Structure prediction request, 232 residues.
Amino acid sequence: MPDSKTVLIEKRSSRRFPALLPEQLSGVADNYVVSVTGMDRVAGYDCRVVLLEPKDKLRYGHQFCAEAGSGLPLRSRTLSEKNQLLEAFAFTELKIGGSFSRDQVRSRYAARSKEWKVDHSALAITDVPADTGWSLTRQPTGFKKLTELKRSIAGRAGMVSHIVYSDGLAAVSVFIEPLPKARPARSLSHQGAVNIYIRPIADHMVTVLGEAPAATVMQIANSLEFRGVASR
Prediction:
């Protein structure tokens, strides 16, 4: 981060580019109609257009254009429940195959960053699988609990409960933490295709976010309740 002269070191994600689709596709067809709708051309390459149409209004539609020879996703589009374009990513310039030189990706800040601050705080985050004691009274159709754990996050006093629900493609994260001194009001916001809903519950603050329609994110937040932690 050149503006603050900081190098931030984080753990590498388990999933790497170009993994836009989940490793297990078995559940996708339960919630989406999958079809190949023809050919297109992106960044000078022919690609097959694959459409994932949601079977209800609880999830977004997706369109991918995969390079005909390698299957590399050249373009990705997210479509709202009204079939409007919400978000799109695409290559504008691409070279597949050939030799590669590390000089092409060498940092232009490397020589200037010797005196910069190195921030390792993100490495202090720990994930512990646990029964958080929270569950849904009205789980959205097609969504299943994928993970449930408690996280120690840098800058937060206590453990934060984190639950992830997925329909096989879209994922919605639920974060539950102690209520801050300034009690937050219910609020709904979005960043691109991601909806974010904050709701105070008793002495906890619940934040639900995911690449899903606002109604889905709000249903998860509003049906969340504490049932107690199972004895071990």
Remarks:
- The longest strand covers residues 32-42.
